[in-house]
Amino acid sequence: MDELLILAVALPILGATLTTALPRWALAVGLLAALVTSATGLAVTAAVWWQGPLHLAVGGWEAPLGVALRADGLTAALLAMINLVALGISIYASGYFRASGKLVHFWPLWLLLWASLNGAFMSADLFNIYVTLEVMGLSAASLGALGGSRAAVVANLRYLLVGLLGSMTYLLGVALVYTAYGTLELHLLAERITAGPQGAAALVLVTAGLALKAALFPLHFWLPPAHSAAPAPVSAALSALVVKAAFYLILRLWLGPFAAVTTTSAAVVLGLLGAGGVVWGSWRALRAERLKLLAAYSTVAQVGYLFLFLPMLAVTPAGPGRASLTAGLALMALSHGFAKAGLFLAAGQLQQYAGHDRINDLGPAAREHPASTFAVALAGVALVGLPPSGTFFGKWLLISNAFATGQWWWVVVVLLGTLLAASYTFRVLSRAFSTERVPRQAPTDLRTELPALVLTATAVVLLLFLARPLWTLLGLDADAALPGLAGGWR
User: Fold this and answer.
1) Per-domain boundaries in the chain
2) Whole-structure pTM value
């Protein structure tokens, strides 16, 4: 089963190579590669479910000399989300780009991005993480520029430069770690790093580089133009998957190898930046005139929610409290991934029909594409955090633990962000139900309608029924992780 780890990275790379070598068959080869890669990623999740964490020393070379891949419960849960969302994006893209002739360029870049995402989540040493970040940034920026407009090219050149700055900052931290401790393997570092200036400096550099890639406020300046100008399937990947990878790496490093040098004060600083992202991102989303720009600013807010967990994790020892926080964070991350991908895909469908994504003028397009409009509504339910969405239970656990740890001020941020999210969601839906009709400009295609609907429905409904299996995958006791709620999910 351990060999599945390398296959989850190697298969999309092979697919990218074949789609480049066989451009006439790019669509068929790309879809086949997407299906096989998604199945492999889900197989990793199933293997972790059945036998526990997986570990593979590539080529038989163990650390510190070799390259290692690992997948535990949290990694496996997020891998399942990544590969399901990526499959939906692949199906959508096959219809979205059908008339533009850009599929031949899309598939190699997209499969490389997919491989780098799987690799980033499973890499077990700091340098391999850097390699995956570089591939991720280059392929994501290239995909974003596929829109071809001046705005898309400029925004994604800026994204590329910001990504390179983040990678170089991260690499400086990695160099400092290797100089001080002689290894980059995460488990070995957890044994060697002790409180001191070298470890603290390395943590600052690594965190700063990843925070830039995660669009943590106020380092989010590159995200709204890049995500809103990119083609819809690319926007979905950037918002739902790429920024999630950067946050996941911060979480892993703070709770893993750098745990000895992290402090409550530093975690509070990240929490405050996250709070700024929640408020500012939600406010700018409310003020946005374009649907994709609204979704992009909403991503800034949703990333901020994830960082609110760090101050509470910093003061919560292992036990029911930490299990509850882990459960809430996992639900928030999974729900946002499914919902935001579906929102961008639905927005792209409406934009293709109407020829624009101006919120005030989307009424006719919304009437002609009820499935996409319903997907936008479901995404709004998940982003606001209404029951029965996974976000609702994630916020419930966040608020409960804020009171339990005496950090009640985060509750104010959550409630304000929720109110603003409800406002911008209602604003979009109120414009969608216009009585005005216009002649049809683009045919309906199930390949571009269904993925958005399925992904957003997953965020709202399916995660509710998968909650208890998710806790088992994470190695948590559902009754401890969900006090007062778990009984309803038996």
Assistant:
1) 263-490
2) 0.91
